[in-house]
Each structure stands twice: as C-alpha cells, then as structure tokens.
Amino acid sequence: MVPGAWVLGDPHTDPWQGSFTMAATAQANQSAHPERPGRADGVCSEFTVFTEIKPGHADALRRDLAAMADAAEAERVHAAVRQIGTLHDARHVIFDNDTRFMFASVFDGSWDAYIDDFAKTVVGERFDKVFSHSVGFPGVKDPGVKDWFIAHQAPANVFVSAYPDLTVQQIYKDHRVEEAFEEVLDTPEFRAALENPANEELVNTPAFQKLLEEASA
Questions:
Q1: Collapsing DSSP states into helix, strand and coil, what is residue 69?
Q2: Do the Cβ atoms of 115 and 35 come closer than 8 Å?
Q3: DSSP 139-195
Q4: Nearest residue to 85 (alpha-carbon basis) of 145, 173, 181
Q5: Could you tell me what percentage of the chain is helix, strand and coil, using 3-state DSSP and rounding each to the nearest 5?
Q6: DSSP conformation class of 7
Q7: Burial (CB count within 10 angstroms: exposed 0-12, middle 13-18, buried 19+), residue 17
Q8: Which residue, among 188, 171, 161, has the nearest Cα to 44 in the 3D structure?
Q9: 123 with 83: CB under 8 angstroms?
Q10: Below-50 pLDDT ranges, the chain
Q11: Which one, of 146, 155, 58, lies nearest residue 100 by Cα?
Q12: Taking a C-beta distance cutoff of 8 angstroms, is the pair 61, 132 a contact?
C-alpha cells in the first residue's frame, strides 16, 4: 500500500441519509379513502383541481400568485416543499377568460397525508389565500376541505412519469450523493487511490467501471 493513499472500499458512514420531517409520515400513512380520484405511475400520483373563480376576483388571484413567485416568498415556499418532502411539481393556471382556475401537482405517497402535510406549512397559508378566490372554498384547515378538493378534482386520462420508480426523497439523495462524488473525483487523493495497486481489483470490477463511466457522462 502506498503510504497516505486512501484504499477504496473502507467502511464509511453514509452522510447522506438525512430525512425530511413530513416525508416519512406521508409514505407510512395509507389513504383511508382508496376511491380518491387521480392516476398513478409507479410511486408518483397526479392531482388536478379545477375551480370557478369568484366574479371580480381574477386580478386579486393573479396578484396572490405573483406574490408566491417573489424571490423571498419563493424561498419560503421551496423550504416548505422540501419539509413536506413528497411534492414533485405544481402548477397554477388562470384560464377561460379569467373565470376558472387550475391547480395541478405530482406527489408521492398517500393523498390524505399529502393534503394534511401542506396544511401544516406556510404552503397551507398560501393555499388559503389562492383558493379563497374560488367559489365555495372552505379553507385548507376546514374538516371538509378534502371533500371539496375531491368534488373539484378531475383525474387525468393519461399520466406518465419520466421516473416512476423514484420518490422525491430518492431524487434528493441521489443529487446529494452525485454532488459529493463529483467533489471526490476532483481530489488528488481519489486519483492516487485509483492508481494504488491495493485497489486494482476493486477498480477493475464492472460495477466500479460503470460508476466511473456514469460520473464522466
């Protein structure tokens, strides 16, 4: 062994096993309402709501949506989304000459836990403000809000995910591992380890060669 060279394969504690507060809850809770509308592709499910905008409220709704896109506000929303840990994406659309509103999203896990988790964060407050411009919205913390969402939800005819087997948490972790590994690749210690004869057997395995190929792609 070359003195001071790192030997690949030494046991290390994985530093990327962090979890987010609400994701485990959402994954663990099973929906009490299996009849919830919406399609799934692997671990991903879609949720699309169409509502009627209150007469004269379109401009106020537009302002509230613009406020969510403000840099400081967007940072708070993104932090809450990471706390929830199950939301892939979301869209807000005003259409039909300012008379109708659509909210669409893709999420992991239980529909009920997804709605519950949103209500516990700053996103729930934003939902209240945005949906307050929709006819009949009871409030995100109202006991009847899930029934209201279901009454206004339209399941997709077709729903396809580009990564149906990956949850948001797995994507977060994969990204953290990739960033960390890229940092390791750039170090002289890693280059020395690749050239270390003690590591030759490991470096030449198909699995390790595939890892290097993927990292350089």
A1: helix
A2: no
A3: -TTSTTHHHHHHHHB---S----SSTT--HHHHHHHHHHHHHHHHHHTSHHHHHHHH
A4: 173
A5: 45, 15, 40
A6: P
A7: exposed
A8: 161
A9: no
A10: 1-21, 23-34
A11: 58
A12: no
**One-letter amino acid identity for 27?**
Q
| pLDDT per position as a tens digit, 68-94 | 888 888 888 889 888 889 999 999 999
Distance CA 149, CA 47 (A): 10
Beta bridge partners of 87: 107
User: CA neighbours within 13 Å on the CB side: how many for 100?
Assistant: 7
Place of tokens 């953290």: 176
Return the number of other C-beta atoms located less than 10 Å from residue 162's C-beta: 8
Predicted TM-score (pTM) of this structure: 0.74
How far is the C-alpha of 156 from the C-alpha of 158, rounded, in Å? 5
At residue 71, the pLDDT reads 84
Do you know the residue count of the chain?
A: 217
Q: What single-letter amino acid sits at 141?
A: K
Stretch (H or E) spanning 122? helix 122-131
pLDDT in tens, 120-134: 888 888 889 999 999
Q: What gap in Å lies between CA 104 and CA 50, rounded to an integer?
A: 9
- pLDDT recorded at residue 12: 38
The confidence score (pLDDT) of residue 184 equals 82
